[in-house]
């Protein structure tokens, strides 16, 4: 199990730095569960890795956090913009593309602020023994594999 806490009042890091730290962890570890909640005015993300749960061949996750104002008239457009921003990064055919595919929001609201936590699929957890190269013998062992391109459903074929 892991935890990440963003404390705006503590001024230890910016939201951008928090996101970078979170995304680095998610890219290096097979994260399979992310939950968002608050402790006072602080945002807390907690979750589990495939190693914690002893699972493989399940989607791995990452997240990006944005501050939102629930009273904004264009809240839907802001959230759609965040999804579009992550989708623009998602290009499995490109070497420069991130394999981040947005799947859901978790909204966390305190008395003073609110955050939108966009959870994205970023790969598939692989069994280290079957993956060939994990563990002590070499390789990274826990890094998520890119999301494989699946067959196109009949309704979406051109």
Write the layout of secondary structure elements.
Blueprint: E1 2-6, H1 15-28, E2 31-39, E3 42-49, H2 50-53, E4 59-68, H3 75-89, E5 101-109, E6 114-124, H4 128-131
What are the defining features of this structure?
158 residues; alpha+beta; three-stranded antiparallel beta sheet; 4 helices; 6 strands; 23% helix; globular
Summarize the structure.
The protein is of the alpha+beta class. It contains 4 helices and 6 strands; from the N terminus they run βαββαβαββα.
Could you characterize the architecture of this molecule?
- By secondary structure, the chain is an alpha+beta fold.
- The protein has one domain.
- Helix content is 23%, strand content 33%.
- A three-stranded antiparallel β-sheet has the order 1-3-2. A three-stranded antiparallel β-sheet has the order 4-6-5.
- The longest helix is centred in the middle third of the chain and has 15 residues, at 75-89.
- The protein is globular, with a radius of gyration of 17 Å.
- Residues 130-141 and 147-158 have low confidence and may be disordered.
Roughly how many Å is the radius of gyration? 17 Å
**Termini gap:** 43 Å
Overall pLDDT score: 81
Residues in helices, as a percent range? 10-25%
SSE sequence, one letter per element:
EHEEHEHEEH
3D shape: globular
